[in-house]
TrEMBL record:
This is DSBA-like thioredoxin domain-containing protein. InterPro entries: Thioredoxin-like_sf. It comes from the Bacteria. It comes from Chryseobacterium wanjuense.
């Protein structure tokens, strides 16, 4: 079974869902999981004002309560030049998928940890290049590809693919069967719940669609 995982490195619910996806990959190695950078807030000019920080902290606490994932609320990445633009980190994932496709989930997890736990600015190309180097992509090679028109176009195509399939929030897992979209889960699910859906899907290849969410609901980040 091929699953499409629509995620965004700067979506807090995707970070919360990361251990669940990791366990899914470990327990179902025959599932072909394709990660798509869906585009949570590409090109955003949103600065982290006091009000926006309060907004983020509220949702981060919810993610922590549901998933157990740790957040550093000091948000060391915040400075006068920082905008909550998710395009650079999404583009970085596309670069890694080009060079080391088998390590894309590892890199996604590394970006999430760097952002939410260590407070690194993953909108910064140098920070992203250092992270890519940690998993085996040479820094100069990464930067050249990262700034290429080809990778920018591929990243935008991922965003467009997300819209075409009417993915309205992250994380989302779905399959495509004869051109029909079958949603496995929209939003956060604990592993045992997801496992039951996967088991049923593997038997029947029919996945029940769930309801769409809104921007930063209690289980997902919308777009």
């Amino acid at each position: 079974m091929k699953l499409y995982y629509f995620a965004d490195p700067m979506c807090s619910w995707c970070y919360g869902f990361s251990p669940v996806v990791k366990k899914l990959k470990e327990n179902y190695p025959n599932i072909d999981l394709q990660i798509i950078s869906g585009g949570f807030a590409p090109g955003s000019k949103q600065k982290v004002t006091k009000e926006y920080k309060d907004f983020l902290e509220y949702h981060w606490r919810n993610v922590n309560l549901r998933s157990g994932q740790y957040f550093d609320h000091s948000m060391k990445f915040v400075n006068e030049n920082f905008h909550y633009d998710t395009e650079p980190s999404s583009r970085a994932l596309v670069v890694v998928q080009m060079f080391l496709p088998e390590k894309d989930f590892e890199f996604l997890s590394l970006m999430q940890k760097s952002f939410y736990v260590e407070g690194k600015d993953i909108t910064n190309d140098e920070v992203l290049a250092d992270l890519a180097e940690e998993i085996g992509v040479e820094k100069s090679v990464f930067l050249e590809s990262f700034h290429s028109e080809e990778i920018k176009l591929k990243t935008a195509q991922g965003f467009q693919f997300s819209k075409q399939l009417r993915v309205q929030g992250f994380p989302t897992l779905l399959t495509l069967e004869n051109g029909a979209v079958k949603v496995l889960t929209h939003g956060f699910q604990p592993y045992e719940s997801l496992k039951n859906i996967v088991e049923e899907s593997l038997k029947t290849m029919l996945i029940p669609e769930s309801n769409s969410g809104q921007f930063c609901s209690d289980i997902s980040c919308g777009c």
